[in-house]
Fold:
Amino acid sequence: MITSIDESGNVLIHSTTSSKELLSFKINDGFLKTAFATKDRALLTLDKNKINRFNFDIKHPETTFETIFSKVWYEGFDRPEYIWQSSSGSDEFEPKLSLIPLIFGTLKGAFYAIIFAIPIAILAAICVSQFMHPKLKGVIKPIIEVMAALPSVVLGFLAGLWLAPKIDKILLPIACFPILLIILTIYMPKIWERVKHFVNFKKEGMNYLIIGAPLIIIVFILSLFIGNSLESIFFNSDFNAWMYESFQIQYDQRNALIIGIAMGFAVIPIIFTISEDALSNVPEHLISGSLALGATKWQTALKIVFPSASPGIFSAVMIGIGRAVGETMIVLMAAGNTPIMDFSIFNGFRTLSANIAVEIPEAPVGGTLYRTLFLSSFILFCFTFIINSIAEVIRIRLKKKYAEL
Amino acid sequence: MSKGIEIRNLNLSYGSSKALNDISLDIKEKQVTAFIGPSGCGKSTLLRCINRLNDLIDSVTMDGEIKIDGIDINSTGYDVTTLRRNVGMVFQKSNPFPMSIYENIAYGLKIGGEQNKGKIDHVVEESLKQAALWEEVKNRLNDSAFGLSGGQQQRLCIARAIAIEPTVLLMDEPCSALDPVATAKIEELITTLKDDFTIVIVTHNMQQASRVSDYTAFLFLGDLIEYDETKKIFLNPGKQQTNDYISGRFG
Amino acid sequence: MKKNGSFYIWLTGCMMALSVLLVSGLIGLVMYYGFATFWQKDVALVQLKNNSYIIGEIKKKEINFNNDLTVQLKTGNRDFYGVDFRWIKDSEIQSISYDKEILHIERDEWGSFYGYPKSFEHKDKKITYNKNNKNEFYNLINSSLKDKSSIAKKINVINKKIGEINFKLSELEKEKRVLSRVNLNENKITKLDEKKLKLLNSYKIEEKKLFENIQILNSTKLVVSDIEGATKLLTLVNIIRFNLPNELTLRGKISLYLSKIWEFLSDKPRESNTEGGVFPAIFGTILMVLIMSIAVLPLGVIAAVYLNEYAKQGKTVALIRICVNNLAGVPSIVFGVFGLGFFIYGIGGSIDTLFYQDNLPSPTYGTGGILWASLTLALLTVPVVIVATEESLNAVSKGIRDGSLALGATKWETLRNIIIPTSLPGILTGLILAISRATGEVAPLMITGVVKLAPSMPLDGYFPYLHLERKFMHLGFHIYDVGFQSPNSEAALPMVFSTALLLILIVIVLNSSAILIRNRLKLKHKG
Structure:
């Protein structure tokens, strides 16, 4: 804090960090010398015959809208930056409470989770709603929905303590897996043509499970093998080190990739259930109308069912984003919780929610940090509330539309 | 090679309950054939056998033979989508797709692989004219199909069905949801369409059957009771049951 | 291919299969590790090429970053080696054998012990181990362990008495403080002091008894040594359980396995939660869910009944419905923050200043506790109950309603006698789903009263029996705490997996029962 006094006794107090004018008052008595009391709580002035004491209590002197949401030039830094650093060992420490890195982390985590979840959830929903026998659907749908019931603390623990060390070792095979999976699907119809004469699945959709699932496992094992071979041939058996040496890409063990998978896991059932409902509820007569025109099931699904249900799918994605933004335990346990701003999928981050969980037990009640944490939960609340409202309104409209069709 | 539709010894059941019982009949080419009978007699089921729309229902078991222009439609090598492109269908409840009028008609062509814009434009216009709808909609082809009235929607569905040039047109109670004026228009349309298509219509309105059809089949509880020229069925039915139904004693 | 879309259909099919694989894989993984925790593996005696020996359970083999095949051994004996695990290069291993003499002891501190017995001393009897008196040796330990359990019971009783005395003492202190503040006559205070003296005396007697019993336990000594010959003296207090892992028959292993599962479910945790059981956590979870149900059920049902039956269906109600649905999507941590600000510092703080003035500044209700946690979760789950209740109220057919009203019943009578009973299974489904959600939720609890180790349960034998202000343990938080806050996380991992398995099983059972009830309900409405 900087205090300035002019000769006529006007006192101005400014914060050095936020350059906010904190207080101004006038001393009428005249003075010879001035001094600050400890902890910036009072001003002492000396006039001819006595010492005067001016007590003041400035609440949250270092915090303004700007210090929370824009770059601040802190002591010891060479340029203005967004920083979250709420406490440290020394007394001289000035808390740096920018919420931007946390908001960034929140969006980063949600982004990777959604990227992971969307293709799996929506495609699976199309499969279950369009290409599956109702009885089989009655089994598969609850199984996928069980995912939604899995406590996030279990997902977080598995992600942080089991998956993260594993992925660390098999990064390249993991990268190979989706590519090989696509290649497998391209050949799948041909494989199926060969196989289908030998097996007889009465219920439509059984073939994806009985033939698809084992092949996916085989592809996974294959990608482990191929990935490991690639790693030992091209990258000197250590892909992570190679990445660092060649591109300066640092690999944190707990990173956005892990979160993408773990939180994606939590989001998949949400997107799946809502999209599946929207897809299944497309009126039957539209589907038979299209089939009667000689459209294949796929053409009907793509051109009639999907467009009709797309608002529902959109709202499913919105609700998925809402969940990913607010998820706490998974990010707390598997995101590393470093409040840095870095787009890299291999770096950790800290989200608003995890930040609250980490900091609020230690924040002094009523203090600046405590209030900032309340502000951040207010931001979370508003964000999810708006997203969910949009999704809900869209869903209600779709329901009406289906009723009219 | 015989033209028209040949149905031989057709049996069909939903799960354990029998819906069609040893049906055999020949539907003549480019004529209107009506299926009549009380509700639940299996007339719609029989109709849906002709374009294999029953395939969608899982519990259906079927045997017997249906030949269209001499080709067995249930034979393994025969592609169901080819069949359905050859056999158009109009449903009880008009079911325009949630798209524009133009897109509704172009849909069948596009999924058939037609990409030539000029050709599509031409077919859209021709089929709308054929369905006697062109004058009413030509200025709003890009509007949503849901803006049309019930009768117009049903004619749109007919136009959509004939746009892909099928040989057979199946109609499942096409007028049951329409008012008398709209019904009259559709009936008029049916009589003009029979020059180009073999039409099979399911109806439980006997007046309608007598007005539009050349041949009539009376079904009762899954059995084909009588099948003959419409005139004969209505004026001089061969079976007592037919007579009872037509004179309104049951049904 | 484009027309019939077989590639795309297979793509959707594969994604469906992938989702099913993900779920079953995850549950399978947790089950595998969770159930494996309690299985006593054979303990290997590994001879290295440099002629030294290591004893330990072989955990896994892995290729490390140097491309060497390495073996992970759980060597235990943390007091000897400082760590529980050791990695050994496969190439360094000369041979692996399974010595039947190897003794495995579960201890109350320092984790497992693997090694050899030396001598045993119990009630003036001293016996030195050799291969010939093996049976006699272990029988003696076994019988002394039985003694231990009877002594432990005695100690428990004494501890309870001491607890009671402590409780009375603190009550006296409180009374005294009140008296001295109100400044009443000295007489009463001296009376209180006399009482206190009495209590202190009986405290000393009990304490002496306690020491005597502990003395008995401590006088029984087992000397063991590790493979390198370093000896360690264990008293009965230290020994939880022992076995000869390589000599165990399959039956023995199974019964050991079952007894360990029982210990897990019914016992208190040991060694900063990484060993022993999770009973307090199970208990805390159940109690919290119960209190939550008591709060959420009336709240949710009344709100739903009002919205569905009494409120005028218009824009306001539609808006309220959207908000209720949205509430379900608000992050749980936000509810936690709300609970902290509103319940704990708001209501709890006021309760403290009004009723627990004497205890201030140490808060009673003004800090996290089971009541506040339960209420926070009740807020979190109320939308679930409202939505389910409304659904089932809607499902009651109009015919039944009209029938009842036509007989001259009032709206309230119809509601009470016809509609609510018919929709009861639906309400129950909602409650079960709410419970399932609350069971798995951790984030809001972390800031409203859950702790890693609660000194006392929220329900006990002292008045008023149910202590709503106490902190509690929770299965979900147990996972977080043991997995991430424990200093020895590698050794704690099996415990975390078992707890996770237990939690998943509870949640899945709850959910499946909700689904079953709902399906049966659907059938009933169809019929």
